[in-house]
Amino acid sequence: MRIQAFHHLAIQVRDLERTAAFYRGVIGLSEQVRHYREDGTLRSIWLDVPGGGFIALEGCSGAAAIDEFRADSPGFHLLAFRIDAAARAEVERELEQHGVSIVHRTRWTLYVRDPEGNRVGLSHHPVDAG
Length: 130
Fold this sequence. Notes:
With about 130 residues, the chain is α/β, with parallel strands linked by helices. The protein has two helices and eight strands, in the order E-H-E-E-E-E-H-E-E-E. The strands form two sheets. The chain has a four-stranded mixed beta sheet, covered by helices on one side.
């Protein structure tokens, strides 16, 4: 098998509009398309990821299970986006302006949660901030 590139990541969310607003307004992704069910209700919102691929936010109605940041359980841990090391301080200011708390940080990565509680990393690994 030869993988060519990242295609997409689907994330099931309860509040499509609020979660899409986070990925557009805070993370800076652009909206690609909206998909509707036959009854006209919103089913999903797709957001472009720079460099190729997209995130498909898919509507669901179940309850979310939010655990500690470093849970000792299998499954996807987080979605990480690359940031410029020199822009880290600006990224922190932007998060604060949007009222988004940094829940964990390392030398290279800032970690936040989206409105549904999913972990999101903003990383410049392995480049040190300048």
